[in-house]
Specification:
The structure is a single chain. Strands 1, 2, 3, 4, 5, 6, 7 and 8 form an eight-stranded mixed sheet that branches. Helix 9 runs antiparallel to helix 11 and helix 9 crosses helix 14. This protein has three domains: 125 residues, 3-Layer(aba) Sandwich (YojJ-like (1), CATH 3.40.1700.10; 118 residues, DNA integrity scanning linker region (Ferritin, Up-down Bundle); 60 residues. The chain is elongated and about 90 Å long. Helices cover 58% and strands 12% of the residues. It starts with a helix and ends in a 5-residue tail after the last helix.
Length: 365
């Protein structure tokens, strides 16, 4: 499974959360939401494509005075139908800052030709230069290529058809489902090994590695969900199911093995690039500074939390034993002194027995 991910590693890297808000900028993510399927603006843009029409739409942020010239003022409430009809005229359409009004139509754009643009077509050159010069959002629709391009400040993005985005999201979701299955198996193994006092650094790192891989794949799906808007509701529901309880499990594992420094350990994990993350031995060296096959025992916070013991007794047991291994081999006298009664001691033993039975039967906790 790791080889499969490594082979397709490039799928995940460009769409990590950091790249969404870093490469494109946080404001650009909001732009993608503005043109998501289900919005009035997206309805108009899709109509342009279906009618094989071109269009140039500029949002007025107050910096357009020196750029626009000519045309005429309409000052009408925005609607998809109005936008499509007005786009039949030449020139750019100017929308209000919030996109709720159509302000000007048939407008000429006089941009600074010294501003660099990677585009070749007249409309797209004007769009990119306007976005850079006025620091605003500009949308260019190409009737020849039948594509929608977004320009916002120095960033640009080619909008995909929702059917294509949905296909990619579904494929990525399938990869995530496989990863969840692998994670469940690894976690079940770790549960068993911890109770049998045989867990190693590698066993812990394998689980943590899988969680981080899933988090990165989840970021890919989240990016697609932004573009899908209302059409992504089913994908969103499935994503929530697959990621359910994952970060909580990771947090408890880190608390078990790193105690008070669990937050810094999580920070290290989240900063790892994808290629580095693919090798569990990298995690063992960076997090534990130990050999990957070294035996290690947790504090027991996570597994004891799966029992019916109340939090007060869990904290008491964890606080008085060095680790779970020491707790499991503790004598009745030691436990009785802590728990305070024979009834509580019996209850504790029963809970540990039930926990072992569930794990031996391959049941998830």
């Amino acid at each position: 499974m790791v080889n499969e991910i490594e082979k397709n590693g490039e799928l995940f890297l460009p769409f990590s959360k950091e790249n969404i808000e870093g490469e494109l900028g946080k404001d650009f993510v909001d732009v993608l939401r503005m043109v998501a399927p289900g919005t009035s603006l997206r309805v108009a843009l899709d109509d342009f494509l279906n009618a094989k029409m071109g269009a140039l739409i500029v949002f007025d942020n107050g910096n357009l005075e020196s750029i626009i010239e000519g045309g005429f003022r309409v000052n009408t409430k925005f609607s998809a139908q109005k936008l499509v009809e007005l786009a039949k005229m030449d020139g750019a359409i100017i929308l209000s800052r919030d996109g709720k009004d159509i302000v000007n139509v048939n407008t000429l754009l006089f941009t600074d030709i010294s501003i660099y643009t990677k585009e070749t077509g007249t409309r797209h050159k004007a769009a990119e230069r306007t976005a850079k010069q006025a620091k605003t959002l500009v949308i260019a629709v190409s009737e020849r290529k039948n594509k929608i391009s977004l320009y916002y400040g120095d960033s640009s993005y080619q909008l995909q058809r929702s059917s294509e985005v949905l296909r990619r999201a579904s494929e990525t979701l399938q990869i995530l489902e496989k990863q969840r299955d692998v994670f469940n198996e690894l976690l079940l193994d770790l549960n068993s090994l911890e109770l049998r006092r045989h867990s190693t650094v590698n066993d812990v790192c394998m689980v943590l590695q899988r969680v981080e891989i899933m988090k990165r794949i989840s970021d890919v799906v989240q990016r697609y969900l932004i573009e899908l808007g209302k059409e992504g509701i089913i994908v969103k529901m499935r994503l929530k199911e697959l990621m359910g309880g994952l970060q909580k499990e990771e947090e408890l594992i880190l608390k078990d093995y790193f105690g008070l420094s669990h937050s810094s350990s999580l920070e290290i994990l989240e900063k790892m690039d994808f290629d580095f993350l693919l090798e569990p031995m990298n995690l063992s060296r960076l997090l534990f500074e130990e050999l990957h096959d070294k035996n290690i025992s947790p504090k027991g916070i996570r597994l004891l939390g799966k029992t019916n013991l109340i939090e007060r007794y869990v904290d008491l047991l964890v606080g008085n034993f060095e680790n779970l291994s020491q707790l499991l081999i503790a004598s009745n006298e030691e436990l009785l002194e802590l728990l305070g009664s024979e009834a509580m001691l019996t209850f504790f033993r029963e809970e540990i027995y039930n926990l072992k039975e569930k794990i031996n039967l391959g049941k998830g906790l």
